[in-house]
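User:
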Amino acid sequence: MTDFSSTALQDYFGNRLHTDVPLAHYTTARVGGAVCWFAEASSAPQLTADARFLWDQGVPFRILGNGSNILVSDLGWQGMMLYNQAKNISFDTTSSQPLLKAESGASLSTIVRAATLEGLSGFEWAAGIPGTIGGAVYGNAGARGQDTQQILALAEILHREKGYLSLTSPAMGYEYRSSELKRNPGHAVILAASFNLKSSTPELVKEKVEEFNAKRRGSQPAGASMGSTFKNPSGDYAGRLIEAAGLKGKKIGGVEISPIHANFLINDGTASAEDYHQLISLIQKTVANKFSVKLELEIELLGEWQD
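Assistant: Predicted structure:
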């Protein structure tokens, strides 16, 4: 980064700009070093303008939602973090196909509550997932055999070279916990999305949400974590493989492989990002050695790491 970039950032963002912000405060694992620059974007139009400016300036940046699927190095990151607070949501129930429209910073928990009150079904699977609409669209979030690609109608995208795009679910190039955007980070920003829902009643939707919440509480641990760490390999489960490898309960530093669900790595309050990184490496090596299975990360690593 040049001094000119720093000056240009200050001129553009003004009092929205913060420097050397520890990201541990903004991630669900409660770890992560400082990012050089940090600014909040409070609406989709502001997010659009910010992204265009940063691309024009050649400043590397990432969009930060609830910080649930990211592990940031203790050394931090030499770039700009845009904290996505674009959270407007609305429902269109005037046609036979009800639609939910949401800006990308809206939390899944807010969406689930709002859809329940409207008596609209389709998002119950997201109950208890600590993510945002943008993160769900980006990573094809899902649970209980359901996922984002099944209900996505349109994703409103700002692409670095192509400008505004409205992409259908097939155009997103979805795979299990992945999309074309996730496989090629940095080229596009998700601004908003709309989803196909089904008419139901508040009582029936609430009943299904409570059922999913109960299953989640019974099978997944509480505490600071990134959620599911690894993708499930085809025909198997990452948690089962980790447990079968004898690693359940294994601890490095302040991070433990949960005794409840081995695909969750829990911070006891003293962990560092490097503790997570070392435990992730141990899991991958052990599972590969024992079962010849390469566990792929569901989370994303950001920053520099020790070998």
